[in-house]
TrEMBL record:
Keywords: Coiled coil, Hydrolase. Pfam families: Peptidase_S15, PepX_C. SMART domains: PepX_C (SM00939). Residues 196-433 form the Xaa-Pro dipeptidyl-peptidase C-terminal domain. Residues 54-81 form a coiled coil. Residues 250-283 are annotated as: Disordered. The lineage of its organism: Bacteria, Bacillati, Bacillota, Bacilli, Bacillales. NCBIfam families: CocE_NonD. One of its GO terms (molecular function) is dipeptidyl-peptidase activity. This is CocE/NonD family hydrolase.
Length: 437
């Protein structure tokens, strides 16, 4: 909302301080690298939008109470409702109550409806400084970073604060991890103080502390660091290659050819377990132990040997994956994990790519290179820890499962199993790019 206000060009607006703000409705909901943010889309409409729509529609107390009771029952039953197909006929929201629900699902990302409320395509209209707050496990992390980069690159004096937080939790206990008192936004980070200083400076011309442009929390170290640029200039993008064998991730490229296979069934997708989600608590956000999921046959784990010394990864993370599928279209997912000496495996960052998004009709039975954007993170892998990359094809209900048919569950209920092959060889060197400090 603040970003759109800044775009309006109102001369009375002098500064903004958006917390975990997105910049594109279509990127957030129906085009996350080709995938639909299903859990967020259905939950957000049900929890945040529908109550207001019901209050507008039903004028009598009895009608409204009945509608609200139905809403509460549906919220209690969300885990089952997530599985309903096709999504356009989702029974939790009636057509007469929210007529745009199905329509928006079918809008292409370039539709004028999305353009009208898109911020990133109107960045040049923003002429006020912003104090941007983000979280490593927030669903809008990459959007908040982009908002900062726009103002910072244009010399407006923007600042960025990134904590280990989720969209709704600014404390020290995030997910299954305790990041210490320093992580508390109302403690050392002192967000109240930063906001007051920010607005006093731009509205009252009071001096502002000469802090760096970016303050970020290093998980694992559990301390704050600063930099003038994002990503930090002292980070070196270093490939960690996938290989066969007991140690299946190495900083040296593969010298022999190998491949790994798995099958992906859209009717049995990998459950969401932590990350930058914004939906029902059963599929909670933040860092979560991945060990149970890693027992599945449709998750490949590429893991380093225990580290001989600590290693800090701070910046943007992406996977370069050489893969083949026998389906007309499919998805590939990647997850970066910190494995503790006791086996606990905490997720740090994850991403997805819908194959046809990058390769159109050249997906089926072709070896293609896929780029999977895992957004950003900052983590110190302690000595004795291991770096792990999980590769799979689903993350449900965060993302809609790809039916592998060339169609979508938005309008179809048909699906088929996809047989996936991941390559790791001198010719097809699948790897993750880690920004190492």
């Amino acid at each position: 909302t603040q970003i759109l206000a800044a775009i309006s060009g109102n001369k009375h607006l002098k500064a903004i301080a958006p917390i975990m703000a997105q910049n594109s409705m279509t990127d957030v909901f129906n085009d996350h690298d080709g995938a639909l943010e299903l859990g967020m889309w259905e939950t957000w409409n049900l929890e945040s939008m529908l109550p207001n729509m019901l209050a507008r529609k039903y004028k009598t107390k009895a009608e409204l109470e009945q509608a609200v009771n139905n809403l509460m029952k549906n919220l209690d039953n969300l885990d089952t409702l997530y599985k309903f197909k096709p999504y356009k006929d989702w029974p939790a929201i009636g057509r007469e109550e929210m007529p745009y629900f199905a329509k928006l699902l079918n809008y292409e990302p370039t539709h004028n409806h999305w353009k009208a409320i898109d911020a990133k395509s109107n960045y040049e209209k923003i002429n006020v400084p912003g104090l941007h707050v983000a979280g490593w496990y927030d669903c809008f992390l990459d959007k908040t970073i982009a908002n900062f980069q726009n103002g910072h690159s244009r010399g407006f004096g923007d600042r960025l604060v990134i904590g280990p937080w989720t969209h709704a939790n600014f404390g020290q206990m995030i997910g299954d991890r305790d990041f210490g008192m320093a992580a508390n936004a109302w403690g050392e980070a002192s967000m109240h103080k930063q906001h007051i200083e920010w607005f006093n400076h731009w509205l009252k011309q009071e001096p502002i502390p000469e802090n760096a442009s970016v303050s970020y929390f290093v998980m694992g170290l559990n301390e704050w660091k600063t930099t003038e640029e994002w990503p930090p200039k002292n980070a070196t993008n270093t490939p960690l290659y996938f290989q066969e064998g007991e140690v299946s991730a190495k900083f040296t490229p593969p010298t022999t050819s190998s491949e790994t296979r798995f099958s992906y069934d859209p009717e049995n997708p990998v459950p969401s377990n932590g990350g930058g989600t914004l939906h029902k608590e059963l599929h909670a956000d933040g860092p979560r132990d991945q060990q149970i999921l890693e027992l599945r046959d449709d998750i490949l784990c590429y893991t380093t040997a225990p580290l001989e010394e600590a290693l800090e990864v701070t910046g943007q993370v992406e996977v370069k994956l050489w893969a083949k599928t026998d389906a007309p279209n499919t998805d590939f997912t990647a997850k970066l994990v910190d494995v503790f000496p006791d086996g606990t495996a905490f997720n740090l960052a994850d991403g997805i790519i819908r194959a046809a998004k990058q390769h159109g009709d050249k997906v089926q039975n072709n070896i293609n290179e896929y780029t999977i954007n895992l957004w950003a993170t900052s983590n110190l892998f302690q000595k004795g820890h291991q770096i792990r990359i999980e590769i799979s094809s689903s993350n449900f209900p965060r993302f809609d499962p790809n039916p592998n048919t060339g169609k979508s569950f938005i309008n179809s209920t048909e699906s088929q199993i996809a047989n996936q092959t991941i390559y790791h060889s001198p010719e097809y060197p699948s790897h993750i790019l880690l920004p190492i400090i």
